[in-house]
Write a structure and sequence with these properties.
InterPro entries: Intradiol_dOase_C, Intradiol_dOase_core, Intradiol_RC_Dioxygenase, PCDO_beta_N, Protocat_dOase_b. Belongs to the intradiol ring-cleavage dioxygenase family. One of its GO terms (molecular function) is protocatechuate 3,4-dioxygenase activity. The chain is mostly beta strands. It is built from 3 helices and 13 strands; from the N terminus they run E-E-H-H-E-E-E-E-E-E-E-E-H-E-E-E. It is globular and about 50 Å long. The model has no long low-confidence stretch (mean pLDDT 87).
């Protein structure tokens, strides 16, 4: 298998950890789930090698969601989200583009189809990006996103969460997941979370509080390591087999 410019043997994943496509408790899966057998389509040179992103297109405040939209401070509880991007053997993945997007402190996205009654924050865009360093480390300063209702059943709410997108060395190499916050009681009640059959896989999506990296009188910190393969793999939404 080719990944990050090198050829390495494929490490098979335990697909039992991943949710079935048809999960009636998550209403959208009823119409979205496939009805035909899966097809395995190998990647081509285009997906593996290009196009690539330029490291110089990132701005100095791209990983600071508190001020990167207007330059003025967003409203909400400030939090640091940090961690490492690792392979199955705990080796760091350097130079990877990580993007995040989220709702504001009131639980509303800056999107024209978001009809939740919570107000928009004029100073919060809700997205950011950064590149991992030579130790695979990344960091974002943001505000804790609010929970919000969604039309699944009569009274379902999404837990506080942040969406993560991890790119390899080409845009065809992309993994998407969500990070949840330790202690949120809505995690156990979320129909989307509950499509994951393995409780250990759910736990790997929950970032623990990291007081050692908190900023006194400023921001709490949460640590979220992302593992691409192996028994400690992070649960990804779009590619159960990873990169």
């Amino acid at each position: 298998m080719r990944r990050w410019g090198m050829i390495k043997p494929l490490i098979q994943r335990d697909h039992a950890q991943h949710p079935p496509a048809y999960t009636p408790g998550y209403k959208s899966s009823v119409v979205r789930s496939p009805r035909l057998p899966k097809l395995s389509m190998p990647s081509t040179r285009t997906e593996e090698t290009g196009p690539v992103f330029g490291h110089d297109v990132l701005g100095p405040q791209d990983n600071n969601l508190v001020i990167n939209y207007t330059g003025q401070s967003a409203i909400g509880e400030r939090v640091i989200v940090h961690g490492r991007l690792l392979d199955a053997n705990a080796n760091p993945i350097a130079g990877a583009l990580i993007e995040i997007w989220q709702a504001n402190a009131g639980g509303r996205y800056r999107h024209k189809k978001d009809g939740y009654l919570a107000p928009l924050d004029p100073n919060f865009g809700g997205c950011g990006r950064t590149i991992t360093d030579d130790q695979g480390r990344y960091e974002f300063l943001t505000v804790r996103p609010g929970a919000y209702p969604w039309p699944n059943t009569v009274n379902d709410w999404r837990p506080m969460h942040i969406h993560f997108s991890v790119f390899g060395h080409a845009f065809g190499q992309r993994l998407i997941t969500q990070m949840y916050f330790e202690g949120d009681p809505l995690i156990a009640r979320c129909p989307i979370v509950n499509t994951i059959p393995d409780p250990a896989a759910i736990d790997r999506l929950i970032a623990p509080l990291d007081m050692a990296c908190a900023m006194p009188m400023d921001a709490l910190a949460y640590k979220f390591d992302i593992v691409l393969r192996g028994t400690r793999q992070t649960m990804f939404e779009n590619r159960p087999e990873g990169l």
